[in-house]
Design brief:
Length: 101
């Protein structure tokens, strides 16, 4: 199935170009998703064009945010997060890698 749910705090994941995906957040607090400060890493989402927030989970339901991947396959995509476990050690957990097929 194209698209599907992806864990926003995952180190990496693969998606299909030009398809909607739902980022889910199993953390209690919100997670901010933003372009990587590394200019060699390309923003993987066609919408929105910039940063957004995935809400924290409520009870047993994860927070979700639906977005669309860009229409160009490649391996140089990624994003940075703030609010995931381990983000204080950003060099170990960021950027998150997205492979678009």
């Amino acid at each position: 199935m194209p698209g599907g749910d992806k864990e926003v705090c995952s180190q990496s994941w693969t998606g299909v170009h030009d398809t909607p995906i739902t980022l889910k957040n199993e953390n209690v607090g919100a997670v901010t998703v933003s372009p990587s400060p590394d200019t060699n890493i390309v923003w993987p989402f066609s919408t929105p064009a910039g940063s957004f927030t995935v809400p924290g989970k409520s009870g047993s339901n994860p927070g979700t945010y639906t977005t669309t991947l860009v229409n160009t396959p490649g391996t140089s995509y990624g994003y940075a997060t703030s609010g995931c476990h381990g983000d204080a050690h950003r060099t170990l957990t960021n950027p998150k890698t997205v492979i678009i097929t």
